[in-house]
Amino acid sequence: MKIEQPKVTDEIVQSLFKDKFEGAEVDFGFVSIPAGERLPLEGTTFHEEQEYSFIIKGALSGVSGGKPYTIKAGEASYIPAGEPHWCVNEGDEACELVFALVKV
User: Fold this and answer.
1) How far apart are the first and last CA of the chain?
2) Which of the four pLDDT bands, split at 50, 70 and 90, describes residue 3?
3) Contacts of 25 (CB under 8 A, 6+ apart)
4) Starting from the edge strand earliest in sequence, which strands make up the sheet with 50-57, in order?
5) How far is the CA of 68 from the CAs of 25, 43, 63, 86, 102, in angstroms?
6) 74, 53 in Cβ contact below 8 A?
């Protein structure tokens, strides 16, 4: 049985550009997570790509690979492909970040 993963809206995640190279694909984008928002709304999510993120403004807390984390403006993160994760913006302002999803 295939379990459908929750969908994140285009209002939150914006793909700025996608490109393909020999042996790799890159999706570079921007996310603005409103105060109080949890992604996904329930459970965890995962993707086929390696995820690299840099926080521009605000902070996020969550769990990735079963380990809790907090990340704030000026910090970067990496989530391996296939790793279950979720995050929440517990602050009082939007958390803004840029990301690169890299599929090899």
Assistant:
1) 27
2) very low
3) 18, 19, 49, 102, 103
4) 13-21, 24-33, 95-103, 50-57, 76-79
5) 29, 14, 4, 10, 23
6) no
Query: Two tokens at 99?
Result: 């990301």
pLDDT in tens, 10-65: 667 889 999 999 999 999 999 999 999 999 999 999 999 999 999 999 999 999 99
The structure tokens 């521009």 sit at 56
Q: Quote the tokens at residue 39.
A: 């992604």
**Residue whose pair of structure tokens reads 């793909």 in the numeric block:** 15
Q: Which residues pair with 71 in a beta bridge?
A: 60
Distance CA 71, CA 48 (A): 22
Q: Tell me the whole-structure pTM to 2 decimals.
A: 0.84
Burial class (CB in 10 A: 0-12, 13-18, 19+), 91: middle
- Integer Cα distance of 53 and 24 in angstroms: 18
